[in-house]
Amino acid sequence: MSRTVTDVICPFCGTLCDDIEVVVSDDGKELHEVYNACAIGAEKFLHSQAKDRITRPRMRQEDGSWKEITYDEAIDYTARMLVNAKKPLMYGWSSTNCEAQAIGSEIGELVGAVVDNTATVCHGTSLIAVQDIGIPSCTLGEVKNRADRILFWGCNPAHAHPRHMSRYSIFPRGFFTGKGHTGRKVIVVDPRRTDTAKIADIHLQVEQGRDYELFDAFRVAFKGEHLPDVVAGIPKEKIYEAAETLKSGRFAIIFFGMGVTQSLGKNHNIDAAIAVTRDLNEYTKAAIMPMRGHYNVTGSGQVWGWLFGFPYAVDLSRGFARYNPGDTTANDLLRRDEVDAVLVIASDPGAHFPFSSVKKIYDLPSVAIDPHETPTTEVCRVHVPVAFVGIEVGGCAYRMDNVPIETRKVVEPPEGMMTDEEFLGRVLARIKELQGV
Amino acid sequence: MAEYLIKNGFVFDPVLGIKGDVVDIAIKDGKIVETTEVKDPKVIDAAGKTVMAGGVDIHAHVAGPKVNVGRNFRPEDKLFTYKPRSGVERMQGGFSVPTTIRTGYNYARMGYTTVMEAAMPPLYARHTHEEIRDTPILDQGAYPVFGNNWFVLEYLKNHEIENTAAYVAWLLRATKGYAVKVVNPGGTEAWGWGLNCENVHDPVPYFDITPAQIVKGLIEANEYLGLPHSMHIHANNLGNPGNYTTTLDTFRLSEGIKPRSKFGRDQVMHHTHVQFHSYGGDSWGNFESKAPEVIDYVNSHDNITIDLGAVTLDETTTMTADGPFEHHLTELNHLKWANTDVELETGSGVVPYVYSPNIKVCAIQWCIGLELALLAKDPMRVFLSTDHPNAGPFTRYPRIMKWLMSEEARRQQIDSFKHRDKVIEATNLAGIDRELDLYEIAQMTRAGPAKALGLSQIYGGLAPGLDADVAVYDFNPSEPYAPDDIEKAFSSAEHLFKTGVQVIRDREIVSNGNKRTLWVNAKVNENPQVMRDVREKFLRYYTVTLNNYEVSGHHYIPNPYVIEVDATQ
């Protein structure tokens, strides 16, 4: 016999879909089917059922082989590593719940760590731009109910946030948007003809790395001022047309992704993007939103915001919080040899950081806390497998529009496995013992 | 729990009517008790010092999404403010938008023990509660916003008070909220289209209703339920020259309505940060104070309470659910602007602001805040606030006390204004010689707000049976003092007890307390129509499902204090 759990939250991307249905065995030990989720989300749920899943901590030996250790040994190793380090890096946090993030933050305070999250290689530039110029934004329901002009810039939700377009942005029928897709104009700015671009009314195939120019051209076009014949590879007529499309809407929204946060210009691109949105508010209503990747990268920025006042790259090593991206960011610290231990949790820098950074992690005392085997777990000295947040344990997560949703536990973790929160809680207690506080 | 006896202090307590007499205060099992009831107490020598109940803040923005936007988008607010971890104190920083940790400690240092978060977007209730959870020491509650909520707009269009009340009760329970908050009624919904409602009869786009109908209807729904607090409003037209007429129009909506609450309050409307709503003139050129007109109304109508929203002449971070106002402000000062519109519910904005004593308008605003307090006839209905952090950070409360208690301090400030003569001409403050005493300060900061919140059965005084929230300040009211002595003494309580736990000893924080979250559970009769409406709206227009909306779980509210209301009769 089996039973269906409804209203389940998908712990994959920042879209944080909360209408997933999961079929589990009656005893709650096995997960059989996943409905409503996208292919990636469904795979995340089903992957928790892998028969070859690692369920106990393990330590890499001199010869490169792995030896199973107990959770107690892993807790002691982690606590000692952090206490003995002068400046440990605690990186990741984006695929776990806010409760674990809050405990991790206190650990960071006690041991004088640098805490950084995956925004550092993703929307960190957006966070810097927001500090420069602010951000007029909204919740995704405002987009669903009001928006008739949708602009995707440097992002490809068809692949990266597969249900975004159907749940929130292009296709849904909302209160003031009863015609759904046919009542909306869609603009995509992307050098590639992506699957998202294919369904757009206007596709501006911007020259690689020229986003800043094109944003500025929009601001000129809104005012009806003169543009050169071609800007960033786009004929001016097309820019005027797109600008007029945005201005003539009742509610315009700009979604932007790593195509514009991590290309030439970085935070300056986002400054310009937000300035475009501000300008649009002179003519109509407009909002802008980053397409956040991990399902709770937004949450870690929130937790550190209320505890430390900064959303990422927080250096606690001097006893107070310092924030200086480019200096206190994970890659910069690793490549400058400024950290002497690394704890990675709920992320995979091994797959996403430059090789030079990954090599530094390999050389340092290091712990990876992750339910999966990843490139990161393979380079760290200790791998602590934990229960999947949102599948085997609940907890709070923040959607890309900062809306917090309580993820749900739908199935039991393999017997004897810890959660991130439990593991970090035990590490915190052990650190207090070691430090005598 | 330890017993305490606070001996020989000068006690100021409006609940017991003690005006500076030397009285001993005893604490046992978290409560104030008769001195005969403690057997072997720890004795606190308060001779030559001032003793009051713990402060109660009725209106501040201290937790939640817009507060965190303020923190995260203003790294400059942390400059030169950071304090390392030490003893029981965790790392803390920030000036106008402090971290949650600092918020708890800094309120405690001022002798405050209860603080209400003034605007909680219901969809973001979890966030608000997570921040409240991580704010040490203070008892806190949060007011969900209702004035632009689609359910409310639709019910009140047809004057369906019972349905509105049922929905209010449902939302308070779902969000673990404390009171009915209204911000720019109708105007924030209009902001969904880039528009606004500037007076109480401006129609709300599409919804075919006016702010006046929303306000009146929500007062009636509030009284239908008999909630502890009254409807709590930030009216339309905030911050604009000439807006005092809108304020008076809003006040008048309460006329003829009597409170139907068992919680001891006398008002049906609390109007917040009235300083921002007492402006005359029709431009920034002829901007002037209309505080006397506004406070005259309050003085002569006993079913209204207000708080000041006093300007403190600092650089700060404005934040409000009044989305169109913040857009207006960023157009004015060209500083960075954050905005979030929240589906079916509300909106918000955040903009930094500098209240410079060299700017005439800022100096006039400063005068207006103080005029409201000094012209008030009943300090039990006019409460000290800065609308933190909007008119200034809450850490300036002791400075406001100094200004209210000392004409000399006010004169010094006025004399330092760049546009002194123009400011004097546009205001009334220079002609006011009243100096408030500590009893009146205790009314404005303890007994009054506790009563208006419907919490006078637990907070606001030193009568036996009340929670043992007690502050001891190093201030001797029987000896001559300089104005600055007031600010210094009330910025740093010598001792503070929170529900019987000593959290400050000799000016050191020695405990993170045992904070509670207050929320109101209002029981109403089953209302199938409202529940059908809720289900339908969630299905069609919200982006979270109904089953994922309610805030539940120990980790959001680890230590709840639930106030039960029965409106089923």
Short characterization:
By secondary structure, chain A is of the alpha/beta class. Chain A has helices at 39-47, 71-84, 98-111, 124-133, 140-146, 157-160, 164-169, 195-198, 211-222, 236-247, 258-261, 267-280, 297-308, 330-335, 349-352, 355-363, 375-379, 420-435; strands at 2-8, 20-25, 31-35, 58-60, 66-68, 88-92, 114-117, 134-138, 149-153, 185-189, 202-204, 230-231, 234-235, 251-256, 285-290, 314-315, 322-323, 341-345, 366-369, 382-384, 395-398, 404-407.
Report what the structure shows.
The complex is a heterodimer of chains A (437) and B (569). In chain A, helix 2 packs across helix 18 (420-435). In chain A, 37% of the residues lie in helices and 21% in strands. A nine-stranded mixed sheet of chain A has the order 5-4-20-19-18-6-7-16-17, with helices on both faces. Chain A has a five-stranded parallel sheet with strand order 11-10-9-14-15. By secondary structure, chain A is an alpha/beta fold. Chain A is globular and about 65 Å long. In chain B, strands 1, 2, 3, 4, 5, 19, 20, 21 and 22 form a nine-stranded mixed sheet that branches. In chain B, strands 9-10-11-14-18 form a five-stranded parallel sheet. In chain B, strands 6-7-8 form a three-stranded parallel sheet. In chain B, helix 12 (397-405) packs across helix 13. Chain B has 569 residues and is α/β, with parallel strands linked by helices. Chain B starts with a strand and ends with a strand. The radius of gyration of chain B is 22 Å and the shape is globular. The mean pLDDT of chain B is 98. Chain B is built from 17 helices and 24 strands. Chains A and B meet through helix 3, helix 4, strand 8, helix 5 and helix 13 of A and helix 1, helix 3, strand 16 and strand 17 of B. Strand 8 (134-138) of chain A pairs parallel with strand 16 of chain B, so a sheet runs across the interface. Chain B: This is Formylmethanofuran dehydrogenase subunit A. Chain B: Residues 42-483 form the Amidohydrolase domain. Chain B: Its EC number is 1.2.7.12. Chain B: It holds the Pfam family Amidohydro_3. Chain B: GO terms for molecular function: formylmethanofuran dehydrogenase activity; hydrolase activity, acting on carbon-nitrogen (but not peptide) bonds. Chain A: Keywords: Oxidoreductase.
